[in-house]
Amino acid sequence: MTRTTDSRRRLRQARSTGEILDAAYGAFADMLAMIRRYEDGDGPFYAALAFAAAAAASGRDAILSAPSLPRRPLLHERSPSVLSVGGEAVASELALLSNALIARLTAAAVGANSDADHAACAEAVRYAREIHGLVAGNRP
């Protein structure tokens, strides 16, 4: 199981706003870790993944402003990530994970108890959509 598969599972299982925010923060961090492992600077996915990395960092940072984000991570154990994958595999994993983020953060925004939580979720959704557009639209 890759980290992104684990992140999708955590997002599906999260129930409270805090759990969703915690899972989303981890998912954006996992996206960054996966993108960093992709080293083919001449490959067809390089530019899209570079922009996706910036959006993943921004999405992660947006989650930090949510008051319901637990102060300590709820997850205690991480699955290993894929050590070496091609650009198409990274793009595919990022597309799946960004879809999960969009769905769960949209639900969290609707059920948010505070305007700050709602705003953080909405901003993170915007970055998840940006990532999806970058990686799903860049098929050679």
Structural account:
With 140 residues, this protein is mainly α. It has one domain (3-136): Ferritin. The chain contains five helices and no strands. It has helices at residues 3-13, 17-37, 46-64, 87-110, 115-136. Helix 1 packs antiparallel against helix 2. The radius of gyration is 14 Å and the shape is elongated. The protein starts with a helix and ends with a helix. The model has no long low-confidence stretch (mean pLDDT 86).
What is the topological layout?
Elements lengths: L2 H11 L3 H21 L8 H19 L22 H24 L4 H22 L4
Keywords:
single chain; 140 residues; mainly alpha; Ferritin; 5 helices; 69% helix; elongated
CATH topology: Ferritin
Write down the overall geometry.
elongated
Number of domains: 1
Number of strands: 0
Rg, rounded, reads 14 Å
Total number of helices: 5
Order of helices and strands: HHHHH
**Residue share in helix:** 55-70%
Parts with pLDDT < 50 across at least 5 consecutive residues: none
The largest β sheet comes out as:
none
CATH architecture title: Up-down Bundle
Cα distance, first to last residue? 26 Å
Average pLDDT works out at 86
- Give the C-level CATH assignment: Mainly Alpha
Name the quaternary structure: single chain
Strand content: under 5%
Helix-strand category: mainly alpha
